[in-house]
Inverse folding.
């Protein structure tokens, strides 16, 4: 599957991401009194939310499941590079988003007893996670801040001038 299935973009700034992760942390603290044994971050996208959650929930033990599914917008087969040696009981599992749910399904099988959270969730995968913060439409591509850079843009009047002269 590729780019063609995405019709719109949702651009997430660092500020927005930080706010959405803090909302996730509030919900975790409200629902779970027992401290987590640690965090399992799903690389690479889960690493940044995992660091922010670790700070808010005062968690020092962080492990990873290393898995790759997409090459930019092109979805390929799942490539699991590293797992963990437990079933997730008492652990918090974190990814940036769930889209088709392919990654979530594979990681669920590896850690069936972890509490699985993502910051963003699309409908096809949402039921696979225990907790997510922001619902995003299936046909929307989420642009994360680590995949973007600030760049110069022409003033509107100059853009109009160039379109009128062409
Ligand atoms: O629900 P799915 O359709 O499986 O898509 C979601 C997964 O895809 C992305 O990871 P990706 O494989 O692009 O690797 P990355 O985290 O290293 O960017 C994202 O970080 C999720 O892990
Ligand atoms: O919408 C998305 N944005 C970034 N990475 C992704 N990997 C799967 N879906 C997405
Ligand atoms: Mg990922």
């Amino acid at each position: 599957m590729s780019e063609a299935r995405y019709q719109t973009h949702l651009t997430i700034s660092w500020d927005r991401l930080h706010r959405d992760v803090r909302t996730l942390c509030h919900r975790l603290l409200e629902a779970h009194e027992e401290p987590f044994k640690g965090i399992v971050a799903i690389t690479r996208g889960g690493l940044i939310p995992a660091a922010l959650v670790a700070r808010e929930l005062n968690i020092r033990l962080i492990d990873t499941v290393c898995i790759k599914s997409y090459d930019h917008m092109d979805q390929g087969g799942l490539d699991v590079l590293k797992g963990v040696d437990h079933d997730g009981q008492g652990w918090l599992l974190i990814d940036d988003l769930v889209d088709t749910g392919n990654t979530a399904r594979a990681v669920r099988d590896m850690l069936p007893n972890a509490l699985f959270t993502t910051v963003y969730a699309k409908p096809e995968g949402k039921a696979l996670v225990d907790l997510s913060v922001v619902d995003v439409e299936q046909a929307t591509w989420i642009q994360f801040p680590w995949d973007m850079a600030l760049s110069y843009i022409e003033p509107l009047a100059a853009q109009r001038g160039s379109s009128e002269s062409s």
The beta strands are 8-11, 38-43, 62-71, 74-82, 91-98, 115-121, 131-135, 140-143. The pocket of hypoxanthine (ligand 2) is lined by residues 70, 97, 99, 141-142, 144 (CB under 6 Å).
